[in-house]
Specification:
Blueprint: E1 2-4, E2 7-9, E3 15-16, H1 18-26, H2 32-71, H3 74-80, E4 95-100, H4 115-121, E5 129-131, E6 137-139, E7 142-147, E8 153-158, H5 172-182, E9 198-205, E10 208-213, H6 220-223, H7 234-240, E11 256-262, E12 266-271, E13 284-289, H8 293-302, E14 307-309, H9 316-320, E15 325-340, H10 350-359, H11 362-368, E16 374-376, H12 398-407, E17 415-421, H13 428-441, E18 445-451, H14 453-460, E19 471-476, H15 483-491, H16 509-518, H17 524-541, E20 544-557, E21 560-561, E22 564-566, E23 570-572, E24 577-578
Parallel strand pairs: 4-13, 4-14, 17-18, 17-19
Antiparallel strand pairs: 1-2, 2-3, 5-6, 7-8, 8-10, 9-10, 11-12, 12-13, 14-20, 15-19, 15-20, 16-20, 21-24, 22-23
Helix pairs in contact: 10-12, 15-16, 16-17
Length: 580
């Protein structure tokens, strides 16, 4: 109960007027006629007050509900929707709206560094081969291939009667042009190391191409399946020049072609009406940039998006229970880690780097931050990769961390900056905050900085003489489980950024020797042993805080069918359609 301006109100905001009425009545010293008039007026006043109170109650009730709704978690929000409440566009819809967490840094196939944007680009361009859901490599634009006995020559026969989106023919000349461009030092190709083994590319005839390698390269067919190796139209690319990064018009043979990129908002592709492998159902793919995962989920449930990448881990189980939403949660091949600049101050000492690994409770992060959508790393490689050997995990031992810091000469810790993207990975900012807190508990003074994805990419790919990076959250998801793609570009000393992805600036001559040897060996058992030995050295040198393997989650409207989801964090909707 409470008194509001002379009106007694109960806890629900419903007011009683008895006290007010008595005060008004006692103050009336007028004639009977005046009293009659006063009674009428009094009744009108009371009625007005009742109406005002009811309106006030309704207003505050609505306001409170609106306030509560903005504070409601998406899990609560989704549970408040019934299966019939989602209002999607009708079944005649021909635009598929996809919510992604980051904007692109470039749309040039050769410049791809992250699976989200590579996924978009590969709707426009296609490679000679494709890595299927089961990890096997199959022909796509290629028809077949042969390898020489010494493993240094690959003859690839191409499909016929395929044209680029600009109308020019797909042929051996286009294949040679694509790979010559990948090897051109004037073209920005972060993944060039995969292709430097190529000595030259020859056009045998219109539909046959020969790759001559400098030395045997066991995963060569696999690298021909990567997005960077998407075959491009010589005519379109030559005319575009540097504009290929922002307006890649008609560059590929894929099911969709570029329409527009509104930075920070959307990337739009339109159907290739002359696609060689079956006309897509949707006339348009709209990739909407929505950095906040909860907002993406809310937009899906409101019918403003048809498919989203990485909804909040908190809401996956709730979404699975809905009739109007379908969820895929698959163990991906993405390893998540904190990169350590091994050339910076305290991090030159391996004892400090190991201390950081002991300081973090990875199990707690997976359980409490990711809600179980991850698996703690116990090796440098995932368990299904050739050469996997269980080496850990580093146990959570803050006392051990403090001891190592003291031995290294930092009993009181030191100042360090941890940077993170936001919206790129599952709860990336929250994971970074948890890690910062663990590091503070062992004495470090940690500052966190967050960046949008394009800025983050340029920051973590800076060369050693320009980088300001000390600790950074990053994930690595190669398109293949082959150990070469997990280890070479990240841990070989020739791969310091920007030439590769070794932004830890880690160097170990024995690791280099093993990685050089492993890529040339064809014998599976010998290769496995080589990569096991390399993994042991890297694990012991601790150039990363080894965290977890992240799950890949997408959710989409239930009547969207024929969506393919790959374990290397990509999906395909080229043959998807609405069933309703």
């Amino acid at each position: 109960m409470g008194l509001r301006n002379g009106v007694v109100c109960d806890g629900l905001g419903l007011c009683k007027f008895s006290l007010f009425f008595k005060r008004v009545k006692s103050s009336l010293h007028v004639s009977r006629f005046a009293l009659g008039v006063s009674k009428v007026l009094l009744v009108l006043v009371v009625l007005a007050l009742v109406a005002s109170s009811v309106l006030t109650f309704a207003f505050f009730t609505l306001l409170n509900k609106q306030k509560e709704s903005t504070q409601t978690t998406v899990a609560e929000l989704s549970s408040s929707f019934t299966s019939s409440s989602t209002s999607y566009v009708s079944s005649q819809q021909k635009s598929l709206r996809i919510g992604i967490g980051i904007d692109a840094d470039t749309l040039d196939p050769a410049g791809q560094t992250t699976t989200t944007i590579s996924n978009i680009v590969r709707f426009m361009v296609e490679s000679l081969f494709i890595i299927d859901i089961d990890g096997s490599v199959k022909p796509l634009l290629a028809e077949s291939y042969n390898v020489s006995s010494d493993g240094k020559e690959y003859i690839v026969r191409l499909r016929k009667n395929i044209r680029f989106q600009d109308g020019t023919p797909f042929n051996a000349t286009a294949v040679k042009f694509t790979f010559d461009r990948l090897l051109n030092p004037n073209v920005k190709v972060p993944g060039r190391a995969y292709y430097t083994v190529i000595q030259n590319v020859e056009t045998v005839d219109t539909y046959t191409v020969k790759f001559v390698l400098k030395e045997p390269y066991a995963p060569f067919i696999t690298v021909l399946a990567f997005t960077q190796a998407g075959i491009v139209s010589p005519k379109a690319v030559s005319e575009l020049g540097d504009k290929i990064a922002t307006t890649p018009l008609d560059i590929g043979t894929g099911p969709y072609k570029f329409k527009e990129w509104v930075k920070g908002d959307r990337i739009v592709l339109v159907r290739n009406e002359n696609y060689w492998n079956g006309t897509p159902y949707f006339s348009e793919l709209v990739f909407k940039v929505v950095p906040d995962a909860q907002t993406r989920t809310a937009m899906l449930l409101a019918g403003d998006l048809d498919l989203i990448i990485q909804p909040p881990a908190t809401d996956v189980n709730t979404l699975k229970q809905r009739n109007d939403v379908k969820v895929f949660a698959v163990a991906s091949n993405r390893v998540m880690y904190i990169g350590i600049n091994t050339q910076w101050g305290p991090f030159k000492d391996v004892r400090v780097r190991k201390a950081l690994n002991y300081a973090i409770d990875k199990e707690a992060i997976v359980k409490n931050v990711l809600f179980g959508l991850g698996q703690v790393m116990d090796s440098v490689l995932p368990a299904y990769s050739l050469g996997y050997v269980r080496l850990g995990p580093y146990p959570y031992d803050p006392a051990k961390a403090k001891e190592l810091l003291k031995e290294a000469g930092y009993p009181n810790g030191f100042k360090v900056t941890l940077i993170t993207p936001t919206g790129r990975y599952l709860f990336d900012k929250q994971v970074a905050e948890a890690i910062a807190q663990y590091l503070r508990e062992v004495g470090l003074e940690v500052e966190i900085r967050t960046y949008d994805w394009p800025t983050y990419v340029s920051t973590v790919l800076a060369p050693l003489n320009k980088t300001e990076v000390q600790l950074f959250l990053l994930g690595w998801s190669p398109g293949s489980p082959d150990p070469h793609f997990y280890l070479y570009q990240r841990f070989h000393s020739t791969q310091f950024t920007p030439n590769g992805f070794n932004n830890f600036f880690y160097a170990n001559a024995e690791v280099d020797r093993l990685l050089d040897e492993g890529v040339k060996v064809v014998d599976i058992n010998l290769r496995s042993e080589i990569y096991r030995n390399a993994s042991k050295l890297i694990w012991d040198d601790a150039p990363n805080i080894f965290l977890y393997i992240q799950y890949f989650v997408i959710a989409h409207r239930a009547d969207l069918t024929d969506v393919k989801v790959y374990p290397y964090e990509m999906f395909d909707v080229a043959q998807a359609r609405l069933s309703s």
